[in-house]
Design a protein that fits this description.
This protein is mostly beta strands. The protein contains one helix and 22 strands.
């Protein structure tokens, strides 16, 4: 495999463990198979990553359970890697030593249902990171303020967990951040009273279903001209936010969590749907009647 740079066998129902002989490939596409076991340390050695460009290790959608990291990792400016390990069976805590993989530009561990513990503050050392996806596991604890050091970050997805505490104001100072998705957690406190001009890149902000977020949405959010998708539903936030949509201003009211149980809301929706269907059917019968 010395001259092979790309190996693509995704969606092939391949079984067995991950061969270390593939560790030196620039593009490894094994997603959506049935590969089991551990991602060996050979896949993280910089001697297997160099050559310039961005190496992609695409292993999402398998049955992998663990990552083994080398005892030491060196870093050179011409080496980088995108690591896709979402939708596997990774379990336990996120390894803190992932923060030593300075060459990572993408770290996606989403929808590993058995991942638990807290988000390592060490991930704030990944100075080249553009995408950090940790949603859909059993993570708890607070969002580390160290993530505010990721100046190259474009997408941060931490939704669908049990994260608590306040949202670090440092996240709104990331100049390249376009997507901040923190919905379906137990976050609390108020939003930052003032926003840095660096937050101008923000396009998507999803905070809904965090009932302990309180206070009024700061006026600074109105000044974010690129913000097109903002969700604050089912929180304790008050007020409204002006969003620019196709060159027009649309005011989005903020709704608070209803005191009615979810079942009642579903029944109400079904009743309204039934009424609409009855009216439509009646109109249709009148139109076709002789």
């Amino acid at each position: 495999l010395r001259t092979l740079s790309l190996f693509d066998v995704m969606y092939n129902n391949i079984t067995g463990t991950l061969p270390t002989q593939l560790a030196n490939l620039q593009q490894l596409r094994l997603q959506h198979n049935r590969i089991t076991g551990t991602v060996a340390e050979q896949f993280f050695l910089t001697t297997n990553i160099g050559g310039g460009g961005n190496r992609k290790l695409q292993l999402q959608g398998n049955l992998l359970t663990a990552i083994t990291l080398p005892s030491s990792v060196s870093f050179t400016n011409n080496s980088s890697m995108s690591l896709f390990l979402g939708n596997n069976l990774l379990e336990g805590n996120i390894p803190t030593r992932l923060g030593e993989l300075k060459y990572l530009t993408v770290l996606r561990l989403e929808n590993n249902r058995l991942l638990n513990g807290t988000i390592p503050a060490e991930l704030g050392s990944l100075t080249l990171l553009e995408d950090l996806w940790l949603q859909g596991g059993q993570l708890s604890g607070s969002i580390p303020t160290e993530l505010g050091k990721l100046e190259t970050l474009i997408s941060l997805r931490l939704f669908g967990a049990s994260l608590n505490g306040s949202i670090p104001s440092e996240l709104f100072g990331l100049s390249r951040l376009e997507r901040l998705e923190l919905q379906h957690n137990n976050l609390s406190g108020v939003l930052p009273g003032s926003l840095s001009e660096k937050a101008e890149s923000l396009k998507v902000l999803r905070l809904w279903d965090n009932p302990n977020l309180v206070g009024t949405v700061p006026v600074g959010f109105t000044l974010l001209s690129n913000l097109k998708n903002a969700h604050f539903e089912f929180t304790g936030l008050k007020g409204s936010i002006d969003i620019v949509v196709t060159q027009r201003i649309r005011r989005l009211p903020l709704t608070r969590r209803s005191s009615a149980p979810n079942g009642s809301l579903i029944v109400l929706d079904l009743i309204m749907l039934w009424i609409v269907l009855v009216v439509v059917n009646a109109v249709t019968e009148q139109c076709v009647a002789p």
